Amino acid sequence: MDKNIIILGSTGSIGTSTLNIIRRNKKKFNIKLLTANNNIKKILSQSIEFKVNKIVIQNKKKYIKFENQFKRNNIRVFFELEKALKSINKKVHYTINAISGIDGLEPTIKIIKYTKNIAIANKESIICGWKFIKNTLKKNKTNFIPIDSN
Question: N or C terminus of the chain with fewer C-beta within 10 Å?
Fold first, then answer.
């Protein structure tokens, strides 16, 4: 059975490492969503290679500039994570949150209700927002998996 997966911050080092693992096990995973902030060429390449038809570009200027390029490749581009998540029908098996720094906290809290397991490689989010993360995990019966990013 394929495991559905979302990768937040797919163009950074943790996201890229995750995709390297998936690359060796492509038949076991179905990537439902990738996100990036600035590295448009890399997320386009990732989307095409892994046949991902939904992405989020969080940098509004780049979102506007490159939206049509993704459409030509049948990739639906979102600016807001929540809109992208609402287009996913059921909880995914795994979410990898590889967004660095405190910027990863809000997406963590938003995505918990859409995933069965969340792996976080972001110490700042855990330290600053553990109370909120813990409550949201419990409310949504989502498992927490810490990842060491070193």
Answer: C
- DSSP type of residue 29: E
Q: What residue type is 79 in one-letter code? A: F
pLDDT, tens only, 101-141: 888 899 999 999 999 999 998 888 889 999 999 999 999 99
Tally of structural domains, the chain: 1
Residue 150, pLDDT > 60, answer no
Query: What does the pLDDT read at residue 89?
Result: 83
Q: CB of 118 within 8 A of CB of 137?
A: yes
Distance CA 76, CA 21 (A): 24
In terms of pTM, does the model score above 0.90? yes
Domain span holding position 91: 3-146
Residue 100 burial (CB count, 10 A):
18
The CATH code of the domain that includes 60 is: 3.40.50.720
Neighbour-count burial of 56, counting CB atoms closer than 10 A to its CB (0-12 exposed, 13-18 middle, 19+ buried): buried
* Mean pLDDT estimate for the chain: 92
